[in-house]
Amino acid sequence: MSIKEITDRIIERSKDTRAEYLAMIEQMRNAPPAPDRLSCSNWAHVVAAESAEDKKSMPAGQGANIGIVTAYNDMLSAHQPFAQYPNIIKLTARDLGATAQVAGGVPAMCDGVTQGQPGMELSLFSRDVIALATAVSLSHDVYDGVMCLGVCDKIVPGLVIGALQFGHLPVMFVPAGPMPSGIPNKEKALARQKFATGEIDKAKLLESESASYHSPGTCTFYGTANTNQTLMEALGLQLAGTSFVNPGTLLRTELTRESVRKLLDQTSKGSNYRPLAEVITEKSMVNAMVMMMTTGGSTNLTLHLIAMAAAAGIQINWQDMDDISRMTPLLANVYPNGQADVNHFEQAGGLPYLVNQLRSVNMLNEDVVNVMGEGLDAYTRKPQIDADRNISWGEPIVESGDDTILATTSAPFAVEGGMRIVDGNLGTGVVKISAVDKQYQIIEAPCKIFDTQDGLKAAFEAGDLNSDHVAVVRFQGPAANGMPELHKLTPYLGILQDKGFKVALVTDGRMSGASGKVLTAMHVSPEAKKGGMLAYLQEGDVVRVNCHTGELCTLVSEAELAKREPADEPKILQTLGRGLFEKMRAVVGDSTLGASFISK
Length: 600
Description:
Blueprint: H1 3-13, H2 15-29, H3 34-37, H4 40-47, H5 52-60, E1 65-70, H6 85-95, E2 99-105, H7 111-114, H8 123-138, E3 145-149, H9 155-163, E4 171-173, H10 185-196, H11 202-212, H12 224-235, H13 250-265, H14 276-279, H15 282-295, H16 301-311, H17 318-327, H18 342-347, H19 350-360, E5 369-370, E6 373-374, E7 383-385, E8 391-393, E9 419-424, E10 427-432, E11 442-450, H20 453-461, E12 469-473, H21 478-481, H22 490-498, E13 503-507, E14 519-525, E15 542-546, E16 551-554, H23 558-563, H24 582-587
Parallel strand pairs: 1-2, 1-3, 3-4, 11-12, 12-13, 13-14
Antiparallel strand pairs: 5-6, 7-8, 9-10, 10-14, 11-15, 15-16
């Protein structure tokens, strides 16, 4: 099977839904322009707070008007730099005879703060809330283009889903960039394990964590936030080579200005009209999946990509991802797959190098359009700035600056990509194999059953997990409690593995994009809440997880399983806003469909 064959089957599968989406976009594209459509009262509200000059030019449609949708808050380090972006965008637009307005803000919660806490049960649902908030922000319908300011886990997918409802407009994503490197990731992980075993106290652990997460910018490991940035370039929604430029640098500021210039040119009032619906296609979606697999990206994107594609009328699934992963070489070695961080990755050649390598073996669809123009050539180059602050893109990056971080297609870190689908009588799940040593990729052992994260923690502290086992943490799916990440469990299971025990985790919940080391079959669907077989497992049942054969099963006979009653699910508390999401949990789709409460 080839990339073209997978692309073609997605095109065929999506034929009807894609046509329906494009018909909606065409209807909006053919609507009268805002100056003709809006009343004088409408326009008075739009420009009430603007300058006298803008009060005349905007209702007359004299220049393009950019709508800024921002996820700024100053608690989330990755989004703190966005505080200055709207003014930069507005001033740049004004210099170019255009205008810009903050169309709206969307919520941006930090999974790093809510890991292991009740607030994490709102995390996945925040993606769809962000999509809805994006649509509300743009519903004033007075914009010629959209700039999306977002970086982290659910925020970027939510912005994409919402913006796709306005696919007749060009859309530009503008990143903030990663914070400078802190302590090595291996040292941080070791401190967490020492805390779990009582070797260091909370003060020492906080000291370690604060040396890792220490300044404005995105966290430097290759988790969901940085995978988002990779995919924004792969989809063609972000300027080439800009994902991992550090905040606070002159280059970062000028790239934001350059984003405005390019977006204005791509509006209907510019010379290169390029709406979002023409950028996000079946072909660019396949390119995004390839980039996810070659970098060993976050498994959270197995949910988000499906939901984003569906918003554009494109039907992709886990089997597509598995097939792509099996034919895509693993070319990046960034934590949790290796010890380097994204700053080291960028210094070694970054995304431009990877695009160049993948193009050389026909692993990407070339006939795509993006915010840089047509094709992928621009995405093999890095941006540079001259003494007059002019931005240009240099020569293609053809060599790795560090072959321990970035490999060639002829000598990859692994011949297959970062993800594997496992399937069997326990359901269908996802494994991030790029982060798991080969010796741990097959586990068959009695299971230990937990209905909460705290249950596993208590068992660990009591010494009840000192054996070969598969830990099953169930009732963690989207319909049960919003599908929280279970990254809190990684240190405990990692300690057991280091002691020589064969351990694995099977769950209908999620794991952090930074999780690795321990074999984990996650996102298991059907989830326990919806009658999935995880609800029928009992303590001591033998469970097999085999990444090589793609198996996820219990060795208990079908006849025995048929006799059993499902376990009772734990009660969901309604505190910390969780009660507001009760109806979302009741209608949310399965993990295999992107775990969305708004997609069809």
